[in-house]
């Protein structure tokens, strides 16, 4: 059995911002919908739908 918390095989730093405890939420950089991340986070934030689409896009771009 493998340990899912061990991401040493992944060479891409896909760190995620901390989840917000409540509003205000940051806007998604792609669709401008609210994300689950705090508005105070400085960096790229995406809503769950856009994160999923971006993951699909980058997974197939080999």
Task: Describe, in plain words, how this protein is organized in 3D.
This protein has 62 residues and is of the alpha+beta class. The chain has a domain at 25-59. Helix content is 19%, strand content 13%. It is built from one helix and two strands. It has one helix spanning 48-59; strands spanning 25-27, 34-38. A two-stranded antiparallel ribbon has the order 1-2. A hairpin with a 6-residue loop joins strand 1 and strand 2 (34-38). The protein is elongated.
Keywords for this entry:
single chain, 62 residues, alpha+beta, two-stranded antiparallel ribbon, 1 helix
- What order do the helices and strands follow? EEH
The assigned structural class equals alpha+beta
Helix content: 10-25%
Radius of gyration: 14 Å
Number of distinct helices: 1
Strand content: 5-15%
Shape: elongated
How far apart the termini lie comes to 28 Å
Count the strands?
Answer: 2
Spatial strand sequence of the major β-sheet? 1-2
**Average pLDDT:** 77
Largest sheet: 2 strands, antiparallel
Low-confidence stretches: none
């Amino acid at each position: 059995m493998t340990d899912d918390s061990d991401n040493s095989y992944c060479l891409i730093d896909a760190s995620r911002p901390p989840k917000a405890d409540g509003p205000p939420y940051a806007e998604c950089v792609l669709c401008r919908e609210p994300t689950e991340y705090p508005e105070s986070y400085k960096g790229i934030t995406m809503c769950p739908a856009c994160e999923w689409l971006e993951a699909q896009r980058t997974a197939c771009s080999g």
